[in-house]
Amino acid sequence: MSLCCENIRYTELAERYGTPLYIYSRAALDEAFAAYTCAFAALDPLICYAVKANGNLAVIRRFAELGSGFDIVSGGELARVLAAGGSAAKTIFSGVGKSEAEIEFALRAGIKCFNAESLPELERINAVAGRLNLKAPVSLRINPDVDAQTHPYISTGLKDNKFGIAMRDAEAAYRRAAALPHLHIVGIDCHIGSQLIRLDPLIEACERILALARRLAAQGIGLQHIDLGGGVGIVYDQEDTPDLAAYASAVAKLIGGSKLGLILEPGRSLVGNAGSLLTRVEYVKRNENKNFLIVDAAMNDLMRPALYQAYHRIEPAETPSAAPFAADIVGPICETGDFLAKDRTIAAQAGDLLVVRGAGAYAASMASNYNTRPRAAEVMVNGGEARIVRRRETIEEMLANEKACL
Ligand SMILES: *Cc1c(COP(=O)(O)O)cnc(C)c1O
After folding, report:
1. 231 in ligand 1 pocket by Cβ < 6 Å?
2. Which of 24, 43, 47, 325 is deepest in the core (most CB within 10 A)?
3. Residue nearest to atom 10 of ligand 1 (CA)
């Protein structure tokens, strides 16, 4: 038996394009997007795909075709959205450290709004907008102080995180924003973390943000939208992930007759399970106490296991002939942290192809050249067709910006 992406065997893709290789299924992107639009249909939300999960131009293009907006965290990501045919008018700009140049770029492009994260940032947006003779649309990212119950590195909604404006400072921040002449207050937003497995923190955040919106309205600060961020978890192993329909009906009940528009910023849940990473076993190494499958993909291609102790399912692309044994699946990089999986029972021998699942999000977008390894190619599969959407980087390209002179 051979595993396939849509109608194409992974072994065939590996032969055609080499390994390591990221493979995305267009049908899976479409399905994930439809899951949001269906579940939230009654609220008619603007879904702003969080580009940092996977910024490939073909991925952005596909979501733009489906009607998506975009959540960006840098000027570079804005350039990606524009290059892929995404709409600036449906793009919101998040992130704690927006530079003047990025703010100017976004204002000139005509983005939907800035999700501002601090008072100094509001002052800076106001100053840049004033210089350009524009009014900048802003939302304030409020930290609702709920525990997202996820890995600490991807938990962002607690009061000790660097993200957002604290709930107790929120009303004063809105009053300050209202007093700045080149700002136009349009919304309120939050994003409490990523890979959330429980629904209640998301709903609790929504409750707190809406309560704040009501207090603001009482002070004459009206809003057009509420943005609940992203964060919905996906299945990497056996997780029981939040049900979108249950999420949507809880939000609908809370928003009720408030007339606020809804924005969502999903990243991982739109692309994570639409992608796999193909890697070939280079060596089987048997040490005294441990076996290792040394594969040609490494932490530079998939950083999540090293960074968050994340789990990815890994399966042989073809039914193996060998008997299964326990092994760590590791890359060639010179770091003990360079592993894709630990203590797996797997049947594989040198030359076999492995499929690393859940590699559509935070894989290619986090890739680096560590150990001077070229970035892997990316392929989009649509039915029986496969297209290269990023070609494999060359060694010449990696060296091109450097000079050996002193
Ligand atoms: C990363 C991020 C998202 C997307 O998070 P996912 O967990 O991938 O859905 C949304 N909004 C903001 C502000 C982010 O930083």
Report:
1. yes
2. 24
3. 230
